[in-house]
């Protein structure tokens, strides 16, 4: 049997590929557990400065594997709250909380929780042929895996409600122009762009990237005054780093910086 997640270590970063292409990489329990293990291994690896998350085949991820939700097996009162608590919510928190940047390379359709897991990543690149679908309403559910949060935060209520209630497939280029993702790129350039970005992050001031994530995540819930305080505290920490000294020295000496992530 194929590995349901492929974890490929490159020089300074990792590529994690969801690998159930016959189901458009829909999540079953095995794929959740394998993805968790791959992320654990990246986190434990001092040399992993970035992650690229992508999908095998023509889709990125079609959300929950509905074959595992057959009502004739599941019965009348399935506890989907429990499955969110066990799998999807920890995954979203994990992606947000990682120190290293996570780049999502959306290679094809991203539906249901598959779309919202992409939005939980730090930088989302999508192939121009990809689409984002809040498929939930088609099966009588609400957006999860952070969907109601990402859509409302990035797009506002009007577009969030329309996407959630109509399950309209949002093309990658519209997702980019609406500010939901970073950019849409030619299909055949997707992985080259994603890995070039990962490589540049891995060779960059990785401690500063972690602090940047922390500051930007704090911004949503803060007033300007509170956010200025967050920046003061985190910039102080960045200012103590060797990377800051190296960055300024390299600038003054007109040479490339040699960052060490500390
Ligand atoms: O349950 C909980 O724990 C709560 C959490 C829920 C999170 C969720 O994500 S709920 C939402 C689940 N996802 C969906 O409802 C999406 C279902 N899929 C689709 O609507 C369509 O497949 C797509 C729009 C994504 C793509 O359409 P298309 O026409 O490009 O492909 P297709 O022919 O529909 O799919 C290709 C194959 O993948 C097909 O299998 P087959 O017929 O070739 O053997 C299809 O059944 C399979 N597939 C696609 N999505 C899923 C799936 N199989 C199982 N589960 C899927 N989600």
What's the layout of helices and strands?
Layout: E1 5-9, E2 14-18, H1 29-44, E3 51-55, E4 59-61, H2 71-74, H3 80-97, E5 102-106, E6 109-111, H4 113-119, E7 123-127, E8 131-133, H5 147-155, H6 157-166, E9 170-171, H7 172-177, E10 183-185, H8 190-202, H9 206-219, H10 224-239, H11 242-252
Parallel strand pairs: 2-3, 3-5, 4-6, 5-7, 6-8, 7-10
Antiparallel strand pairs: 1-2, 8-9
Helix pairs in contact: 1-3, 5-6, 9-10
Bound molecules: ligand T3D.
What do you see in this structure?
By secondary structure, the protein is of the alpha/beta class. It folds into 2 domains: 5-202, 2-enoyl-CoA Hydratase, Chain A, domain 1; 206-252, Lyase 2-enoyl-coa Hydratase, Chain  A, domain 2 (Orthogonal Bundle), CATH 1.10.12.10. It contains 11 helices and 10 strands. The strands form 2 sheets. The protein has a 6-stranded mixed β-sheet with strand order 1-2-3-5-7-10, sandwiched between helices. A 4-stranded mixed β-sheet has the order 4-6-8-9. Strand 2 (14-18), helix 1 and strand 3 (51-55) form a beta-alpha-beta unit. The longest helix is centred in the middle third of the chain and has 18 residues, at 80-97. It is globular, with a radius of gyration of 19 Å. 39% of the residues are buried. The model has no long low-confidence stretch (mean pLDDT 97). It binds ligand T3D. Ligand T3D is lined by residues 23-24, 26, 62-67, 69, 80, 83-84, 109, 111-113, 133, 135-136, 138-139, 141, 144.
